[in-house]
Design a protein that fits this description.
Elements: E1 6-10, H1 14-36, H2 38-48, H3 51-60, E2 64-70, E3 76-85, E4 88-96, H4 105-122, E5 137-143, H5 147-155, E6 159-169, E7 172-182
Parallel strand pairs: 4-5
Antiparallel strand pairs: 1-2, 2-3, 3-4, 5-7, 6-7
Helix pairs in contact: 1-2
Length: 189
């Protein structure tokens, strides 16, 4: 692969959001089918990664979607969805195409998420609740069988805080770790 440069771009247009849904289908089919099976993968794509769901998440649930794109082609090669909440910021989605893994892209997205979270908790419209959470954080859920990403998150400073089994409908469950990266304004992670 030739030397490529990447940038993170906020997704706003219908076309960009439709493209990220297609990217989700490509990544999920390749990565999650062996992990959770084809039926649950297809169900989760339809329910949680469709263009309609992505647009609803942005409109109604305060999500921001971003893509990593090649600077020369604008091809989407990874995506990220962030949702501010009372703890800090939830990393709802962070996925990289197979052929672009191990190039530092996920690490770049974690750093971007951390910067986003630090700015978010300072904003006048922040939903962060300092009375309940003395240490703001980034947090995410990861399938317990997804060992590669679990190890990556640990190397990035995340800790396993809890476990969750979530009924997502149609007799499917997500069996996840809840992983957290704590930060404050005075200390760098």
């Amino acid at each position: 692969m030739r030397c490529m440069t990447f940038k993170i771009k906020k997704l706003e247009t219908d076309k960009e959001l439709d493209n990220v849904a297609a990217l989700a289908k490509e990544i999920w089919t390749e990565h999650y089918t062996p992990l959770i099976g084809p039926a649950q993968t297809e169900y989760m794509l339809r329910v949680f990664q469709s263009p309609e769901r992505i647009k609803t998440d942005i409109r109604e649930r305060n999500f921001s979607y971003f893509a990593v794109v090649s600077e020369d082609s604008e091809e989407q090669i990874a995506y990220l969805a962030l949702q501010p909440d009372e703890r800090g910021v939830f990393i709802s989605k962070i996925y990289v195409k197979k052929e672009f893994r191990r190039l530092g892209i996920a690490k770049m997205l974690i750093r971007f998420s951390l910067d986003f979270a630090k700015e978010e908790i300072k904003s006048p419209n922040s939903v962060f609740d300092a009375s309940k959470n003395t240490r703001p954080c980034l947090w995410l859920t990861v399938n317990k069988g997804n060992s590669g990403p679990i190890e990556f998150y640990k190397k990035e400073g995340f800790v396993i805080d809890n476990e969750a089994v979530t009924d997502i409908g149609h007799d499917f469950y997500m069996n996840d770790y809840i992983m957290t990266l704590y930060f404050d304004d005075e200390k760098e992670c």
